[in-house]
Amino acid sequence: MIFILTERKRKLEKIYRIIGLSLLMIVLVTAGSISCKKEAGEGEAPQEDVTVIKKGMNEFTGVVKVGIGKYFFIPGAQGIDMVISGQAESGDASSLTDKEVRVRGEFSPERPSVLMIDTIEVKEDEKEWRNIYTKTEDVVLDDYVDLTVREEFRTLKNLDYKKKEGWEGKGKVKVYGRLEKTTIGEEEKEVYNIIVLDEKEKQVGKINVDNMTEYALYYLKKLRLFDQFWFYINTKETVDWKVRRRTRELFHADVVFIGLY
Fold it and tell me: Please, which residues bridge with residue 88 across strands?
């Protein structure tokens, strides 16, 4: 009798384990499906095939997601910024946004995040490609900031509107925060300020932005899914004490790069 009960108990435990594992698998599959859908939604489009960039000439196709001035970005070439000299067919690289293109360009290990574009073709129908750009002059990267240059920017810490020695004479620095845009005057001029945040994401002051390089504006648009960044800046004149005390505006600066680290 005891043996029969024990055997029955074992069978019931086995059934419960099978049911439990089945339920667990259903949960995992469902969660995975939701996660994939969420990632696709956050990226605003299914992820393209990643192209492996090699030294020398490269050729591949993809849809341009961001284009400003001489810079544009194709998700399939992750981490690589496309650069043209002069202008594309109708203005600058912004005219390429959302278009499927076929590009050919040169990659050099000396500039590991840049592809110098020789030609661009736009897809007009299922079979036809039309050339809209051919390089005619060398690219001038006067505002490009690579990883080596970024190391020259020191982090500003413990900023306080009462202590101007915290930023005066510092030159190339970086601060963490978010960008604030306001419109002033009858001409509706756009003015930018960096809201500086500390380690606890508490506001410690503002920095008046006088200028932003084309490269910085490009990265601002490229990182559109984020709202807080590291701003690589050149410090300029300090805001007058009376204004600084009232508004917490610390100093003026030019932004040369915007990144996540």
Answer: 91
| Mean pLDDT on 173-177 | 97
Instruction: State the Cα–Cα distance between residues 38 and 219, nearest whole angstrom.
Output: 24
List phi, psi (to 5°) of 143. Answer: -115, 5
pTM value? 0.76
- Residues 206, 53: Cα–Cα separation, whole Å: 40
Question: Of 82, 116, 115, whose CA–CA distance to 99 is shortest?
Answer: 82
- Residue with the two structure tokens 């005619």: 136
Per domain, the residue ranges of the chain are 1-43, 56-134, 147-259
Residue 136: strand, helix, or coil: coil
Neighbour tally for 127: CB within 10 Å: 6
The domain 147-259 is classified under which CATH number: 1.10.3470, 2.40.50, 3.30.70, 2.60.120? 2.40.50
Of residues 67 and 37, more confidently modeled = 67
Work out the percent of the chain whose per-residue pLDDT is above 90.
Answer: 57
CATH level 3 topology of 56-134: OB fold (Dihydrolipoamide Acetyltransferase, E2P) (2.40.50)
**What does DSSP say about strands 203-212 and 249-259: parallel, antiparallel, or unpaired?**
parallel
pLDDT band of residue 32 (cuts 50, 70, 90) is very low
Half-sphere exposure of residue 141: CA atoms within 13 angstroms, side-chain side: 14
